[in-house]
């Protein structure tokens, strides 16, 4: 047997792109990370730096409707201490809250003059609240900025009971509201104490609902952002009435509700390819000329600055992939912008440090700059190095360790990402979602088929019995395609709204014929009774259903260190309650943020297996956790922890061998497949064996039911097929 490998390295050449950074004054702002919220979606945020408070609006699934979050701020604007949760409405909801029902805070406005906090509140999926009318809520604040007493609710005027933005007339004691569905502008007079004192007045302006409302500094013009990328400019009379409306369509603007920001010289918004764009305005506030687009300056969000006549943008940051050349987003930078004197260029006056692997939920600039962010996760983003050349002379080769396993490598698609797939036992094929295509591959014949299906999000599911393919799309719809006798989805079919966006995971309950759509619930009912909406974080990684015990298990990330969610299901496969049970991940260290990746279930041994790691893999603690399940299928006691042998501490996926006597483990960075033996009770036994493969780390592992091969997903969009012998070892 060969005992060692000897190489003489002659030359190594490395090239890498470098990008200069523009220097500017440091920007001060307040930030609410997803860590501070337990991973919850944040719809709106506002900060008061004088009283050191930050207010955020989120959703609530409990009858007490605690969707208003209040945080204390340090002098530098960062969060300190524990969050306080307040009800978003004086009227409680049914207890228990119906499954799929929720309340949310969709808009916030801080009235510093009257020391009031105004909330826009929405309700969805709650029987008995169909006639819910009072969507404007007011809290009195104490001298420290803390909400006190019970809030008071008022009608907003919007027949759809939704508020997307709130502002105050710059000269009048009058509140103005806009929202989804209602195409009018709604105004409410306030008394001397800042409380609503009149019924809402509606001003018809046409078009769709509005998502932003801004006054000129003299109150003579009103600027509205509506759908799709439409700016409406209104003249105002002395009493605050809307008397004239003009609409401006943005060529090639994003197909979304516009959110605009107004200065004395321009109206800013997102334009073509999400680049910062603006209209110049004259001294009277009227639009001048055509929209100007700042090329190669994409932004996620924008808001007013706390400095007059400037705006704040959340600018997309990243790098060009050294291999593909594609731009890769790896974070954001907050930049303060003002127009150059000629109006043709912009000047960056202040900017933040780069917020690495963060993206924007929402932001606000009045009275102080604040932003809520979510995390991009720690997965692979792109290649920063290219041009490596290695010249070697092979002198001899011997080995006392395992040589790489023989396998076939199949390029499934052009997408630069780790491959994830779903296997169909009926058709003996794997299915994967690209950006605009459904990929179908037969491990037996090695035939690959491509079905066009634009704007896919990634999650897919299959109803094997009925031969139906489901794919999540970026707009929250689900593509439904019939699978023909050859196992290929039809190119045409229905795209139905799920009421969830973004969709994090799809799972089909074969027994109950229910499609679980997991993600961020929206104020929109699903278009099909087949869809069962399950609220979840954006980082839901895995889900398993036990239809016999009536359990839905979900594994996620960044919900502090409790990322196991268990939903009780009724006989129809739907959640019994809106409140799931949460369980700790099972790591030895009590860390604030942990990440689960893999999950599998053994109903006979009553075991739930999970794989994951701490937020920072370099801390070393990562592995497989095994939970005992009680007679009802709930995790019981403290799980057993088994440290991974992956040198990068990143166990991404686990699954059983076909006889369920072994656990396969794969992960990022490490091309090995680790094989753990199980004892009679289902616990991991001893140290794992491994198979040596080549290439990149693996994102998924699955043995074929006939034991002929094991399938591995890897980067970029590559499927590896490892032939197996009768003992499920590499052939």
TL;DR of this structure?
This protein is mostly beta strands and 731 residues long. It contains 1 helix and 58 strands.
Shape: globular
Structural class, from helix and strand content? mainly beta
Overall average pLDDT:
88
Q: What is the straight-line distance between the termini?
A: 19 Å
Return residue spans where pLDDT drops below 50 for at least 5 consecutive residues: 1-23
* The CATH topology of the domain at 539-692: Neuraminidase
Radius of gyration equals 28 Å
- Quick one: CATH superfamily of the domain at 539-692? TolB, C-terminal domain
Total beta strand runs: 58
Helix content: under 10%
The CATH class designation of the domain at 539-692 is: Mainly Beta
Give me the CATH architecture of the domain at 539-692, please. 6 Propeller
Tally the helices. 1
Could you give a short account of the major beta sheet? Answer: 9 strands, mixed
What percent strand? over 45%
Describe this structure in words.
This protein has 731 residues and is an all-beta fold. It has a domain of 154 residues: Neuraminidase (6 Propeller). 1% of the residues lie in helices and 51% in strands. The protein has 1 helix and 58 strands. Strands 2, 21, 22, 23, 24, 25, 26, 27 and 28 form a 9-stranded mixed beta sheet that branches. Strand 57 and strand 58 form a beta hairpin.
